[in-house]
Amino acid sequence: MTDRVTAPYGAWPSPIAASDVARGERRLGHPSVAGDEIWWEESRPDEGGRTTVMHRDSEGALTELLGPEWDAGTRVHEYGGRSFLPVPRGDDTAATRYGIVFANRADQRLYLLTEGATAPVPISPEPETPGGLRYADPALGADGTSLVCVQERHPARGTAEQDAQENRPVRSIVSIPLSGRAADDPGAVTELVSGADFYASPSPAPDGRHLAWIAWNHPRMPWDGTELRVGSLDGDGPVTGAYTLKGGVAESVLSPLWRDSTTLVFLSDWPGWWNLYEIGLTGPAIALYPAEEEFTHGFSLGLQPYRLLDDGRLVALHGHADLTPGVYDPGTAELFPLETGLESWQTLAGDGTTVVGLAAGTHTPQSLVRLDPGTGRTEILRRSREDLPDPRYLPTPRTTEFSGRYGGTVHATVYPPANPDAVGEGRAPYVVWVHGGPVAKALGSLDLAKAYFTSRGIGVVDVNYGGSIGFGRTYRERLHGQWGVIDVEDATAAARALVEEGVADPERLAVRGGSAGGLTTLLALCGDTFACGTSSWGVTDLLRLAAETHDFESRYLDGLVGPLPGYAATYRERSPINRVADLAAPVLILQGTDDPVVPPTQARALASGLAERSIRHALLEFGGEGHGLRSAANQQRALEAELAFYGEVLGFTPPDVPAIELVTGRAAEDGRADGAEGPSADGAGGSGEEADADLVAEPLPPLDGDGGAESRTADEQAGRP
């Protein structure tokens, strides 16, 4: 055992390198199970973020089903969701053999890969425009010969259909034959349900006579108000006699699951929390287990937070920010918690007898886990990463509550510096992490990106500010009309509370956030609490966001800020691009050049505004990246740049990290400003020409009666050329 050295906070020697964080993790998603066979999605940062589908057979052998030329992923809602489904294929053998249907990221078509086949074959039509037909949330038809899923149709430019739909994508629920007939005959695709703006969770009844689904319309988001609807399936035609079972404009209903052919289990936040309910095809809904807990992580296409067992019991995730499993017994109406030793579960899959899930712990990486519902015993089948650092270098999180403005509760998790080899003097610097969404949440499970900083002597506090999921509808609705206010106040309150506790250095506080969290970060820097901040693909201009963003979120700001054009002044007031005069702290800006959610023009306009006022900053653009970084090389570059940025501003020199030079002027035509590195991240595939696009803010689009967003094409809203 060595003696601990005294070293400046931020400069502690650490065995956790940025390359370890970026390259060592496989992100697992959307498991499926049938008997002893298990499938799941698995992303590969070392392969540019490509997602494949993995299979584990009854003997435990692992097989990668998709070759390197295939990338499973759907772009429905731009954020995607479940993109594959195992499907039984009939043959002459007694045992059921399975293939998989998956959406291919490049062209968004559906493909079928059967066991023993050399390559997948398309089963959906070729779209008129690249990526113009997208599919997500697949379910197997009751007859086993078709796939039921959400379809998102992006009309070709200049077509009558496009004009009729005001340039917006059209969504429906469709049935696609597994035979592949629709690949060459678009007429073989049957439109089952249409008319709403959005759909999720298409669920055929076991006897094939009914279809249940979730629907909602602009301007609501799925956590604001949805409807659980059901209709009859008669032959090969559309659903008939559809009606609403539960839900409305102020009730979010999610995740329907058939208990039998006439009874559905679902989630509703009608009492203020997403709880379990049951309803028949007629009659009222029955609350199964009322509790001030959430039984879901919120909305995501394909999310499965509970599963039905053959004996009638339910295995359900429940809790607040982090969820753990329990077993609900309808005979006693009791929920029995399962002690699994894993504190944060994301999703479940089951076939009535076998249950698997994705789970993690404070010192356990995300893992594919088989769960015994009777005992809570778990068996880890696959880890997202194999090599972990010595646990002494991992922070031990502390879940806490702070008092926000006017005494409101602020939920947060504190990760203090942790390193067995080093100690600092005085108080440590702390970085406030602000999650995106903004209606989302931060989990307390192992995150090596946090350990990258805490092992070097930089503390982290992850804030679930007002508006976050996990603490009931009232807490979520604190953000209604208050985005850019409540979130900023809560992030600032968390930092000040740590100062008052005596653990954080008041002169060395930083804030960082991505996407919606980037807006919170930049507005927080307009106060006097933080010394610097990092905005990753962050929102800088709310009016521009309303005009340019994709359809799924094109009316999101109606609830977060207010409807346009009436609230245009509020949009300007809460846009960081218009608050540069109040922003004196240095800023690191990270941005993907192909971001359809927050287009790169926002980051460039912010850099231009900072340069005009000689505020120290750095803009790193990552060529080919979207809303977030998929490439391991880009993730590594971003982490190292962030650490170097904190060192430059907070006064320490981190070892083994390339220095970053902050500029105060505008980037020159050769991609360099004041002798500094140009705005493109060299290791990220970006070129000087690509990054040197005009950084001057473009004029805002004119506001019409609909706020301007509806007059733009779907491609322009998504930030595509």
Helical/strand content category: alpha+beta
Based on CA atoms alone, the radius of gyration comes out at 25 Å
Helix share of residues?
10-25%
Number of strands: 38
Task: Specify the biggest β-sheet.
Answer: 8 strands, mixed
Q: Give the spatial strand order of the biggest sheet.
A: 30-31-34-33-35-36-37-38
| Count, helices | 13
Distance between the termini: 59 Å
Beta content: 25-35%
Contiguous low-pLDDT stretches (5 residues minimum) are: 159-165, 668-721
Oligomer: single chain
What's the overall geometry? globular
What's the average pLDDT?
89
Region (Disordered): 669-721
Pfam family, one: Peptidase_S9
InterPro entries: 6-blade_b-propeller_TolB-like, AB_hydrolase_fold, Peptidase_S9_cat, Xaa-Pro_dipeptidyl-ppase/CocE
Biased composition (Basic and acidic residues): 712-721
